[in-house]
Amino acid sequence: MGDKDRIVVEVRYREDAQGPFLVVEPAAFALGNGQWVVWKFLDVPPHLRFVPTLHFDSRLGPFQVLRTAADFQAVVGKGNTGPAAGGRYTYQAAIVFGPTQAPEVVATRDSASVDNRATRVDTTPEVRVRYVPGEKGGRGLLVAEPFVLQLSDGDSPFWTFFDLPPEGSVYLYVSAGPEGARHPLIGPFQSLTSLRSAGGDPAVSQFIVATGQGESPRGSYTYHLELVGADGEVLAVGDPVIDNGGPPG
What we know:
The chain is mostly beta strands. The chain has 2 domains: 3-116, Sandwich (Immunoglobulin-like), CATH 2.60.40.420; 126-244, Immunoglobulin-like, CATH 2.60.40. Helix content is 0%, strand content 51%. It contains no helices and 20 strands. The protein has strands at residues 6-16, 19-25, 28-31, 36-42, 51-56, 65-68, 74-78, 87-97, 104-107, 112-116, 126-132, 140-145, 148-151, 158-162, 169-176, 191-196, 204-211, 219-228, 234-238, 241-244. Strands 11, 12, 13, 14, 15, 16, 17, 18, 19 and 20 form a 10-stranded mixed beta sheet that branches. Strands 2-1-4-7-6 form a 5-stranded mixed beta sheet, with no helix packed on it. β18 and β19 form a beta hairpin.
């Protein structure tokens, strides 16, 4: 994961005669294909135990996911809705602190903005996997989008599998990665949980959810997807990649 893939926005705490407020720098930026954003909340008085937040004019703006970093010092925006939601999105940054019964909020006085210039849909941290049957009864493919999953500490990615045959089950394990992984077969994660789809979209067949990421080395992990039939035969395979970048920012 290179620096060009990550945009860093600084949100600084300030005070004047009117009271405390936040300043966003840069106040506007452009978001391109494959990029994600870290809003770092800086200069907040250490006695304030705060939660950082962002409020877009339309839900999550152009992002698939907005989440608070594990250290509560940043907000991370990942994934992109692509051209269907192109254009400019305005937002306010804020911190929430104090007792839950009467929380206090310090926010920006002026709106900041994101210019979404992405032309490609990026479902990160969801990986959408499509089953492509093989020709003449041969072994098929499991095609993952995005092929390279950009991961940072605190992410809980999940894989959604579409159009699997009724008798098929999918298995995921890491086949290659950096040395020093705590659990080599599950790569940078602590656990992988497989779930059957229950209702909803009839095309969705299965989910796999990863949790506990953050204790394994940074680097590229190749993971293996395998669709196994009722008799144990391998019906389809795929070998996408996880790019584990470590802490956000």
